[in-house]
Amino acid sequence: MTDVVIIGGGQSGLSAARALNGHGIRPLLLEAGPEPTGSWGDYYDSLTLFSPARYSAMPGQPFPGDPDGYPRRDEVVAYLRRYAGTVDADIRTGTTVTAVEPGPRGGFTVRTAAGELIPAAGVVAATGSFGNPHLPVLPGQAGFPGRLLHVAGYRDPKPHHGERVVVVGGGNSGVQVGYELAEVADVTLATRAPVTFVAQRRDGKDLHRWADESGFDHLPPQWLIHYLGGPAVLDTGDYRAAVEDGRLPRREMFTAFDGEHVVWPGGRREPVDTVLFATGYRPDLAYLEPLGALADGLPLHSGGLSATHPGLAYVGLEFQRAFSSNTLRGAHRDAEFVAAALAAHVRDAPALVGVR
Ligand code: FAD
């Protein structure tokens, strides 16, 4: 019998587990993959954190190494592996949740791919978005004979040696991947608007120090979305220089595919081998459809607390409560907020006592 089931064993699920521990709850954490290290191991090989180690740590465990260095992907995997050992939770890996359904007495039933039915008084959905890449569909796309790829499936530049590649998207992933591909391929960056660059360091200090000290990290997201207007790329200067000097030429997004060509605004057609979409992700929550907790696949929530189902909460949504919500340094603040509400829900709902 389970008080709270956490679905997803990345930084969000582990933050939720730690926060629930603070309320005396030992959750059951279900992770589809082989270990509770989230999606980090599947990100592209060259990935280096945009946040220095000192601003990439979760509570209770400093990030090892130079605090001002930028950890690599595999260092994050190792960090989360260690972190999982510090939380008090029943962690079951290799367990995919296929559905969350209404359970007895106002609780939930969590259904796994192996057919197990787990009753729970509370559920935390912490499954990130990497499993749900967003791929736009353009006219003629189905007839394109080349390679169509989302950046979620990109690992390294090798398969694209000598190719003509269009990278779609002006965010961090699009620019980083376009930059490294341009070393081996003929790359064009296609974006709807000019790329916005933000200086990674000012006066020798990383931007995250300012974000932390100024409180920017904690500001409510509505204000920030308005302020930012669109994606911004953290840059030490190399990316901007590459775009400006033509090593990574940027063009306005193409309008259609035509056979092996892309059609640029104005009608010019150019043959392309690979189109790589760095067009973002959507929350990976299909298992909540049976519950009716979503609208168009997106969670109905306020600050991570379900607006439709008391006892259901989210951790790791983009801009869930603040700018830093979906980051290593920020997930814990949302986790602590929802854990307090879940603990009260579990404690104060006498109808659920029989379920626990
Ligand atoms: P995930 O890491 O995606 O973990 C979700 C887990 O849920 C996975 O382990 C998955 O296997 C599991 N799961 C999914 N569905 C199910 C299911 N049905 N049943 C059971 N388990 C399931 N943040 C930073 O702070 N610094 C950075 O530098 C940074 N760089 C990034 C670079 C890239 C390319 C991307 C995509 C993101 C980056 N982020 C960064 C943002 C964010 O920190 C990461 O996306 C992080 O992995 C999110 O953690 P999470 O736990 O919310 O989700």
Folded structure, characterized:
The protein has 356 residues and is α/β, with parallel strands linked by helices. Helix content is 21%, strand content 24%. It is globular and about 65 Å long. Mean pLDDT is 93; it is low at 352-356. The site of flavin-adenine dinucleotide (FAD) has 35 residues, from helix 1. Keywords: Oxidoreductase. This is FAD-dependent oxidoreductase. One of its GO terms (molecular function) is flavin adenine dinucleotide binding. It comes from Amycolatopsis suaedae.
Determine and state the CATH class of the largest domain: Alpha Beta
Annotated CATH topology of the largest domain: FAD/NAD(P)-binding domain
Shape estimate: globular
In total, how many beta strands?
A: 23
The CATH homologous superfamily of the largest domain: FAD/NAD(P)-binding domain
Distance between the termini: 5 Å
Q: How many structural domains can be distinguished in the coordinates?
A: 2
Given helix and strand content, the structural type is alpha/beta
The whole-angstrom Rg is 22 Å
Associated small molecules:
flavin-adenine dinucleotide
Q: What proportion of the residues form beta strands (DSSP E)?
A: 15-25%
- Give, in order, the helices and strands: EHEHEEEEEEHEEEEHHEHEEEEEEEEEEH
**Average pLDDT, to the nearest integer?**
93
